[in-house]
Design brief:
alpha+beta, disordered N terminus, 7-stranded mixed β-sheet, single chain, about 180 residues, 7 strands
Amino acid sequence: MEVVQASDLDAFEIVACPPGRLAELFRLRASVWIDQGADPAAFPGGEWREALDTRRRHWVALADGEVVAAASLSIHADLGDVHEAGAYRRYQIPEAGPIAAPDRVVVRRDWRGRNIVQRLLDAQDGAARAAGAILAVRQASRMLRPLLLRRGWRHHGPALADPRFPGEEFAVVSLVLQPG
């Protein structure tokens, strides 16, 4: 693993993912999650690609032209349209929309600790607000949860277990984006 000098810590940029680089983003998702203990069999062809990805906005962090991190966001008319809506309804989260569903934040292990996640979360939150979303919901991993809570997200309780991620405990969290 290459050692990065302190002066190189911000040597990345966050950009909207060009359509021609989506396959790279999908491979990055799978490789990061497999590296964190996810079941490789859950990622056919070494990528995580979902039908909802065609409706999502995607961002990537580029370092020397290479994708080192990514995040996505979808906007929904109401909570019932959000992927895995049942996970949120368990906690009586408001149903009215528009609702933002930011997710799929991944950072290559060798690029962690460089403020990339903060900048990806800023992109997600800013785009959600610009789209007029009044609330954001997500299922957060143990690693992401403390950062989200410091940013004002509310913890509701555990999410349903996901067999693709043995041993991971996701939580349902939400953030009010527009005063109601």
